[in-house]
């Protein structure tokens, strides 16, 4: 590792400790204080963009820095990954030496790789917001409180199925090994770590919950569960909440580090307003602006994620926080959307509602090919009857029309080895 990178790592740890209380306090600021804070940060990023970033230079005369408000952002176009990938240096500050930058790669399971340079304290800010998310439930935790983490870890054959990150005090358990054979190791780690926080993918927490339930084991020590990176299905949430009886808070973010949002104990997704600005376009795509990235300013960046819009704007959350609530929930990535005959997109929530009717289905995976045909894999809690399968087929045809449909009952829905996640819906349809 280069000396400058080692120093950066160290200074990011220092920054985490110095800044944590300030970030923690931000969640209780008033709406006007939050707006002022955002205006200041946006103004500084836009000044850098129009003076030093080739793509944004033509907008210098258009932005009113004298009477600046958040509305100035609307003068800039929406940009997307393809546009940036075609000419990345056009989007990076001219006064930065590209060879010395540190990068964050996006790990998407499909599409070409894409990487974004990180601003100096980017890693620390991720860690800080990760810890702050825990305080959105009923309980407060100190920085470096222990947490069990069932994600982002795939041990190789023969390696231990847990590892410790001492700096963050995370106790990782493999999401690939949640079964009867390894359960004693899981229980030992819960016990030893004394964690009150459990972090994971919705699917990994769900599978663990089913296993513990089946074995009649209770783990009352857990007070807060944080899920992220996959769709939180209503079925998952119901099973998880009923068993653990604690706050189950979902988190949304992307690898590009533009915006993040997390649920509070009342279920609202609060945008981290000190981190980014979130807009929805007319098709409810999330358009994100980073308030931190001053190396490659990502301004009005099309994330390819679709939100479930709010029914009422400007709702006040019962939790008392005035951090904005940009959407009701996340529908999925754009490549998670299914299409009916005629290539009309169908909201995935329709399928989640359909799957709710089949309590004996443990997990499912729907793949739509380019010709719109559907292959569906399902795993069972209890054996499905022929009537269940017929009803499932009828339900899918009702939503997608008369597309070719194959249903396979499988033992397990596997995790993707590249991304670690379990995809629920995958579409190869080009629109
Ligand atoms: Zn709230």
Automatic annotation (TrEMBL):
It comes from the Bacteria. Gene3D superfamilies: N-terminal domain of ligase-like. This is Phenylacetate-CoA ligase. It comes from Geojedonia litorea.
């Amino acid at each position: 590792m280069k000396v400058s990178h080692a120093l950066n790592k160290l200074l990011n740890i220092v920054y985490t400790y110095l800044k944590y209380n300030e970030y923690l306090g931000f969640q209780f600021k008033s709406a006007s204080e939050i707006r002022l804070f955002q205006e200041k940060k946006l103004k500084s990023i836009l000044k850098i963009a129009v003076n030093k970033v080739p793509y944004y230079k033509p907008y210098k005369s258009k932005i009113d820095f004298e009477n600046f408000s958040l509305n100035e952002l609307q003068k800039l176009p929406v940009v997307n990954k393809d546009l940036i990938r075609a000419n990345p240096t056009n989007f990076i500050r001219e006064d930065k030496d590209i060879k010395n930058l540190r990068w964050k790669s996006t790990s998407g399971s499909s599409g070409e790789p894409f990487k974004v340079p990180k601003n100096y304290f980017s890693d620390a800010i991720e860690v800080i917001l990760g810890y702050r998310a825990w305080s959105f439930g009923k309980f407060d935790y100190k920085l470096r409180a222990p947490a069990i983490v069932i994600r982002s870890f795939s041990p190789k054959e023969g390696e231990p199925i847990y590892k410790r990150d001492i700096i963050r005090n995370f106790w990782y358990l493999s999401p690939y090994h949640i079964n009867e054979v390894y359960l004693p190791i899981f229980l030992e780690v819960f016990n030893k770590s004394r964690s009150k926080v459990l972090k994971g993918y919705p699917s990994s927490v769900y599978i663990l919950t089913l296993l513990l339930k089946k074995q009649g084991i209770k783990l009352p020590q857990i007070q807060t569960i944080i899920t992220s990176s996959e769709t939180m299905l209503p079925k998952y949430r119901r099973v998880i909440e009923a068993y653990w009886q604690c706050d189950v808070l979902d988190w949304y973010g992307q690898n590009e580090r533009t915006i993040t949002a997390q649920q509070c104990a009342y279920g609202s997704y609060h945008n981290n307003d000190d981190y980014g600005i979130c807009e929805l376009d007319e098709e409810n795509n999330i358009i994100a602006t980073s308030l931190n990235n001053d190396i490659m300013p990502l301004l009005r960046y099309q994330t390819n994620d679709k939100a479930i819009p709010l029914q009422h704007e400007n709702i006040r959350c019962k939790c008392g926080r005035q951090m904005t609530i940009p959407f009701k929930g996340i529908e999925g990535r754009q490549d998670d959307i299914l299409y009916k005959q005629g290539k009309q997109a169908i909201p995935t929530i329709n399928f989640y509602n359909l799957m709710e009717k089949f309590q004996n289905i443990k997990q499912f995976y729907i793949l739509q090919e380019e010709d719109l045909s559907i292959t569906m894999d399902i795993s069972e809690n209890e054996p499905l009857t022929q009537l269940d399968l017929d009803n499932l087929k009828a339900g899918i045809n009702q939503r997608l029309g008369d597309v070719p449909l194959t249903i396979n009952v499988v033992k397990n829905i596997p995790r993707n080895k590249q991304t670690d996640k379990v995809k629920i819906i995958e579409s190869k349809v080009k629109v």
